[in-house]
Amino acid sequence: MARYGLLCVGVWAAAVSVSAGDEEVWPAAKTNGRIYAECARCAERILTGWLECKRDPETHLYSRGGEWNYQDEAADHYSSLVVMAHHLRPEWNEPGGALHTTLVQSVRLCTTENGLPARYDLQNKKRGAVDVSAIAEWLRDGLLRIAELLGTDNDYYRELTRLTDALLAEAERRGISSLLKDSEDEGNVLQVLARLAAMSGQTRYLEAAESIADRYLLADPLQKLASYNFVDHGCELVPGLSELFVIESKLNRPRARSYREPLRRLLDRLLEVGRHPESGLWYCRANLQGDQPKQQGRPTKLKQPGISGAAFRPDVPHCWGYVLFAYENYDRATGENRYRAAVEKPMRWLVANQSRFDELKNTQWPWNHSVGCFGDSYESMIILWNRYREVPGVPEWLDWTTRVGGLRREADPRYGPGVGGHTDGCIGRALCAHMMLQSHGVRAVPYQKGLSCGAVRHNGVLRLSVRSEQAWSGRLCFDRPRNRHALATIDWARINELPQWFVVEPSSVYEVRRDEMDSAHLRGDELIRGLEVQLQPGQCLRIEVAEIPRVNSQWWEKRVRP
Q: Which tens digit of pLDDT belongs to each residue from 59-84?
């Protein structure tokens, strides 16, 4: 009987025997490359559209209505442009680049005496009020997202730490409970502090996070929370508490033992009152005490049909995976595997009922009235599937979501699948995630139209198919272990995560073969910096990459190219 592995046919789906020949593997990589090219083209349209139409030429700040603010323009739109540029035009994120200049200008123009930034009126060139909730959103939804992707040796990370320290200093003066006005603020800051502790190695961030979490987890959380909102901009607290619990457990700190039972009780109660019984998907809101909301489970009439043609908005949030991340976090921290079935249930239901979308879109499907809704649903699924690979059919579902949700259409002449509005950032991020799914994390930069990069990981070998319609000279940049830090590895499921697939170890050695040429042996850090490639118009280059085991360390070291 033949053994089987996964072959990425467009979306990782088909099983193929390990002894399969090139006639099966390379066409699959080429198909993935076509999807990569389509997603890259659409993301590039959003990126260039915003640079050309939404950037103030004098200040280099972005705005849809004459004001640079931190809850939308910075946290959502600008940070998403940085993510897109990383995958398409990384030089724009470097000092002197178009997007890096925005960061520098925002600090110069908006920072107040206490170190916190204020919104900025682009017409009158004046600072406005400081909004702590907006800053918490900028930290978690913006700077943290960027730092996880780009690493810690850059100005984005330095601004993340500077601004977090400024916020904590203000909390010392005013008191943390008076500074953070609601559970969304608390959840945002908890997520920042938990991850920043791992990145920086400084446990003072954990101590600050504990001062927030103690209110809920050194007491009965069911007495502290009368209800819970499962929609974004409201659902952040439980993921924040669970992220802190993971790292407390990793470091074997005393709070891990103290937090465990109250957190479990809270998670159990949410499952008890917050889920559709058939699908396992969340309602938008649930009461932890007393009767449930009268509208629970009932769709809401839309003012006009959504992009999917739905006339109603179901009582199922588009970001259905965000709170489920907390259940993965608990199981990761405790090793209990207590919540696997609860996490997998909605994943399996969505895959199994994909063909019934038109029937369910008004009643039981997650919000689907905008392209952004599909983008958040995509994010929920891909992050969970990266941990729960046993759920079948997910890659096909992800690809279907990008198509039926309009993420890969080019309807707008300036922004492609975007509209120059609030959901453009979400669309661009989902497109980048889908690109990386097709290439297993390999970025072909700089981008140009007609450039494709698809991969299949088969039999321990990564096989890349790279093609360009025009002559192209650039680099194939492989993914590094970007979540590994001195204090802890950030390996838990989390909001705004960009999943990793083929991760190159900097100190390992890899055998690299291009077409029929002799193989070369390269260190991982060379692949991370980028494999230099030149393509002629229409040329399709095949590259195979495999890690060389360290069986004989002396031989292994000799094989490393100086």
A: 999 999 999 999 999 999 999 999 99
Given a cut of 50, the residues of the chain with pLDDT beneath it are 1-20, 561-562
Pairing between strand 285-287 and 227-229?
A: antiparallel
* Short-list 406, 523, 532, 437, CA closest to 477: 532
As separate numbers, helices (DSSP H) first and strands (DSSP E) second, the chain gives: 20, 17
Strand-pair category, 312-313 with 15-17? unpaired
Rounded (10°) CA dihedral 495, 498, 501, 504: -120
Tokens of 183: 């559970």
Please give the pLDDT value at position 361. 98
Alpha helices in 447-533 (DSSP H): 524-529
Nearest to 308, CA basis, from 232, 365, 348: 365
Strands ordered across the beta sheet of 472-477: 443-445, 472-477, 531-535
CA 549, 554, 559, 560 torsion: positive or negative? positive
How far is it, in rounded angstroms, from Cα 113 to Cα 557?
Answer: 54
CA distance 58 to 105: 10
Identify the pLDDT of residue 339.
Answer: 98
Backbone angles phi, psi at 533, to 5 degrees: -140, 140
Location of each CATH 1.50.10.20 domain in the chain: 182-440
Q: Using only C-alpha atoms, what is the Rg of the chain?
A: 23
b/e for 38-48, b at 16 or more Cβ within 10 A? bbbbbbbbbbb
From-to residues of CATH 2.60.40.1180 in the chain = 1-40+442-478+504-562
Q: Tell me if residue 512 falls in helix, strand or coil.
A: strand
List the structure tokens of 204. Answer: 């003072």
Question: Taking all residues of the chain, what is their mean pLDDT, rounded to a whole number?
Answer: 94
Architecture of domain 182-440: Alpha/alpha barrel (1.50)
CATH number of 1-40+442-478+504-562: 2.60.40.1180
pLDDT digits (tens, 9 = 90+) for 472-515: 999 999 999 999 998 999 999 999 999 999 999 999 999 999 99
Through-space distance between the first and last CA atoms of the chain, rounded to whole angstroms: 44
Instruction: Yes or no: say if 436 and 12 are a contact pair by the CB < 8 Å rule.
Output: no
- Output the six-digit token pair for 551: 């069986």
Residue-wise pLDDT for 173-227, tens only, equals 999 989 999 999 999 999 999 999 999 999 999 999 999 999 999 999 999 999 9
DSSP assignment, residue 320?
Answer: T
Dihedral angle at the C-alpha atoms of 447, 450, 451, 453, nearest 10 degrees? 130
The three-point CA angle 20-26-30 to 5° equals 150
pLDDT for the residue numbered 24: 81
Give the residue among 494, 491, 485, 497 at the shortest CA–CA distance from 202. Answer: 485
Cα dist from 337 to 134, 161, 217, 359, whole Å: 36, 34, 21, 34
pLDDT score at 558: 59
